[in-house]
Amino acid sequence: MPRVFSGIQPTGSLHLGNLLGAVRNWVHEQDQADSFYCVVDLHALTVPAAPGAVGSQTLELATTLLACGLDPARCTLFVQSHVPQHTSLGWILQCTTGFGELRRMTQFKEKSLGQDSVSAGLFTYPALQAADILLYDTDSVPVGEDQRQHIELTRDVAERFNSRYGETFVIPQAAVPTAGARVMDLQEPDRKMSKSSSTDAGIVGLDDPPESVVKKFKRAVTDSLGEVRYDPDAQPGVSNLLSILGAATNRAPESVAAEYTMYGPLKSDAGEAVVELLRPIQSQLAEFRSDPAAVAVALRTGADKAESVAAEVLERAERHIGLLPRR
Ligand code: TRP
Q: How is the chain split into domains, by residue range?
């Protein structure tokens, strides 16, 4: 089975875009690959946060991922800081990555723009991400389009390390989902639904109560063309509703479009479909929230499984570099 690895930052709660664009695929992939999913809490430290916030957000995200259907018996779900090999290999890869390479990363440029203080960690972030991936002999990394550059860098760094020190790392590939799984903001359908959106009305949270989901869809921005076609350029709002309704009911947006002539019914059906999609997740979420000990056990199991793989790969890298072994 191919080895799959992906990471998700514990910043802000999950929304419909995360579910349809990423997490749902992870849940399906559990049985088709040997999958590792990591809550990357150390990456979250690259930007300032209140003391204690990262731990509670990590727990909340892990709880939500379990509620969405990641099953510790079928995948390895763990917290990055629980597996110390990530920082060890992260340092080694900082020393394998060029300053100039890191300076070209668009995520760094975007995140540092206009900030009066930027941590060194924000700059070296992609080297830690490369360590995350390479520690697991990963074949495939399911990520959004915005992460493609980081995966390319990971490949370059792995190849450089291998040619410098001998065959050590598996060269991973990005697996970017094809368009359609991209959920746009309900208020600004030209931009991706995102944690950093300005309005709450444009984002559907996974624990939004049904009334609020329905209301957000009723108020979704459409257009004045008065026809229902799947054409994301000409009709971004309507097409977003079609692709959400399609994704929630496992149909192609074009075939959903054929069933509607008016916006009102499309909005209310999309809202209802999302309520149904979220219903089992919300009930699981309530159960896991009432049993944090079960979440802790799942994460400990995940960390143990992850560490057994990561320790071997780190040891291989250290041996190939020729660090003096501790005896
Ligand atoms: N940088 C990724 C993001 O911002 C998160 C991430 C960290 C990640 N390590 C990873 C994604 C390893 C894939 C693989 O979304």
A: 3-180+291-321, 210-287
